[in-house]
Amino acid sequence: MGKSLIPPDNGDDNIEPVDLKAALEERYLAYALSTIMNRALPDVRDGLKPVHRRIMHAMRLLRLSPDQSYAKCARIVGEVMGKFHPHGDQSIYDALVRLSQDFAVRYPVVDGQGNFGNIDGDNPAAMRYTEARMTDVAMLLLEGITEDAVDFRPTYNEEDEEPIVLPGAFPNLLANGSSGIAVGMATSIPPHNVSELCAAALHLIRHPEATVEELMSLEDDPEDHTRTRVRGPDFPTGGVLVESADAILDAYKTGRGGFRLRARWHVEDQGRGTWIVVITEIPYQVQKSRLIEKIAELLIAKKIPLLDDVRDESTEDVRIVLEPKSRSVNPDILMESLFKLSELETRFPLNMNVLSNGKVPNVLSLRDVLKQWLEHRKDVLIRRSRHRLAEIERRLEILGGFLIAYLNLDEVIRIIREEDEPKQEMMTRFGLSDVQAEAVLNMRLRSLRKLEEFEIRKEFDGLTAEKGEIEQLLGSDAKQWQTISWQIAEMQKKYAADTPLGKRRTTFADAPQHDQADIHHAMIEKEPVTVVVSEKGWLRAMKGHLPDFSSLTFKEGDKLKLAFHAETTDRILILTTGGKFYTIGANSLPGGRGHGEPIRIIVDMENDQDIVTAFVHNPGRQLLLSSHDGNGFLVPEADVMANTRKGRQVMNVKAPDEARHCIPVTGDSVAIVGENRKMLVFPLAEIPELGRGKGVRLQRYKDGGVSDIRVFAMERGLTWQDAADRTFTRSREELAEWIGARASAGRMVPKGFPRSGKFS
Fold it and tell me: Is residue 328 one of the residues assigned to a domain?
């Protein structure tokens, strides 16, 4: 019948206890190491991940060199998947496609024929429709692979062999960059210019102790571009790098950092005073179609009021046209607002986390990457030289046998014709080795002509001389580095700065410094609003400048605290009793159809605090802050701006004391009135300017606190209004008895001062 599924009676004896925690840790670690080693991180020596390396190896086996015809990508993918890479065909094809895209890799490794996608983000055609072959870059990476330059290992099914690493005569890691996410680590390396990398490598060979600063040239050498060392990334799509020189240098020193990359643009005159902005290069890894969609969405949402229209006029080259709202628009301000809101400016991260010698993941500096690549080149040179030396020795052995045979040709013929064991006879008679005797026996009759003897002697002498040169090379470290330098110099000539492929595409510039307020205004459509604040802390913005606030309605039990006119481009500053300032854009305030929203929803304000005042931000002003207990100080208004919802703590107060007044400074003197109806006048210069703190004593009280405070110009006098709206003005002479030193108690208020204790 069928197989019994009942376990044996003694099955309990075969159960092995396993620690679940240890088993999970072991398996997770194995998975992490597998991801790091075999998928995500590139090797510092050839700059390739296993899938890319296997693609190159398979294409070599298929003889897809640059001078040969193309082959179907489906055939290449099938070869890679069947022999070397037991994963999905789509992942292999995606890797193959990327290696061929000139907007994705700086120096394409694969020469594709057909639809391989485009910068708009369109997908490539299916692998059955596309064809590919290798480029010259790929041939450099594979150079010497058949000459024992690298080690091979069995494939996943042990039916074939694959290279552990490619010879890598091309500095692929830095030239084409790499990116990947492993378990607990990631890598992100931008592309670079090969000519600059070669110059840096040559300098490192000549000066092994060279620092990162010495391997970099922040400026191009106009007289000789070959002397220009690494300046920074060189992206396939061009663009303008606006990162500072210090930040670039620090990134290459540590192996970690980032680069700000902007689109390249210029203004095109349309005649009659009109103009347009034309974008010709976009940042690396940004899809052009998605970029234009994003700008169009911002345009519809009225986030870019200076822009009227955007359109794509690209053909083979990128050409994105931006039309301004009017001819009076500043193009620099327009572009700065777009850089802030769209992917016309991106930040490319640098994290040179790679596998050293294919085994250890490390974050390397620029110097370490170049050094390890050069060490690999030296190892490849030695291995290729030894392989060639062995081949020469084998050939010289055979040629030596041929020469002995020519000297004794008649006897050799006789032995072959008459002896039963001619091989053994020749070895005994002429002292030939087994290899020499075999070669003589396999010699063709046409090789017996006299001309062939001269050719053999010539080949023998040439190989003998080459053998001597290789032996000298293997015995001299200086000659080895000299040979490597020559190889790198030849590659530098091939990809020189004046060649179409070697020309630097990404340039460097300083980001223009514009007024942040102007940029902020450019991103918001300017409209008049009336900001309304209620006693219970509800905020709203009414459209237009309301002439009368009496018609405003509030929730039951609530009323108007303050209202003022503003523009949607303004920033609103709010001071709370806890001494914190909050900043809210007037455009982000809730509309005026309802009662607005509580401020505690808009910002992170403590429940036990209330609003002291709110006003339109003026960065050029100075503010006088005071608490209920009579402490105060001056602070520049630009320093109280808060960048987060949490606000900025400016005045330090401790309960039950609280912030009470925030007065714009418009004079040279201060008048302060306490709840005890005593007034003190003193110079403004006696109050210090602080960025944050408790302040100094403004007026001394036995009990109570500050009722009101005013800053005024002494030459114009002190003015106040009573309950009947009558205006009183006191000159310096009339205020003489109230003028004193800061922190004094003061004297009772003058006759006619309001009973409320307020100046107005």
Answer: yes
313 is in which domain, residue-wise? 261-350
- Count of domains forming the chain: 4
Burial environment of residue 255 by CB neighbours within 10 A (0 to 12, 13 to 18, 19 or more): buried
- Per the residue annotation, which of 28, 31, 129, 156 is the catalytic one? 129
pLDDT at 60 over 50: yes
List the CATH number of the domain containing 283. Answer: 3.30.1360.40
Both structure tokens of 224: 């000789």
* Residue whose C-alpha is closest to residue 61's, from 171, 138, 127: 138
Q: Does residue 444 register a pLDDT over 60?
A: yes
Q: Are residues 612 and 622 in the same domain?
A: no
pTM: 0.76
Residue 745 has what pLDDT? 87
Are residues 298 and 310 located together in one domain of the fold? Answer: yes
* Strands in 160-229 per DSSP E: 161-163, 178-181, 186-189
**Widest pairwise Cα distance in the chain:** 149
Spell out where 466-514 has E strands.
507-508
Q: Are 96 and 52 spatial neighbours (Cβ–Cβ below 8 Å)?
A: no
Whether residue 554 sits in one domain with residue 583: yes
3 state SS of 89:
helix
Q: Are residues 628 and 603 in the same domain?
A: no
Strand 186-189 vs strand 178-181: parallel, antiparallel, or unpaired?
A: antiparallel
CATH code of the domain containing 679: 2.120.10.90
* Residue 419 belongs to domain with CATH number: 1.10.268.10
| H helices, E strands: number in the chain | 18, 35
Rounded to an integer, what distance in angstroms lies between the CA atom of residue 76 and that of residue 287? 28
Residue 129 annotated in active site: yes
HSE toward the beta carbon, residue 452, CA cutoff 13 A = 13
Q: Can you give the pLDDT at residue 181?
A: 87
Q: How far apart are the first and last CA of the chain?
A: 107
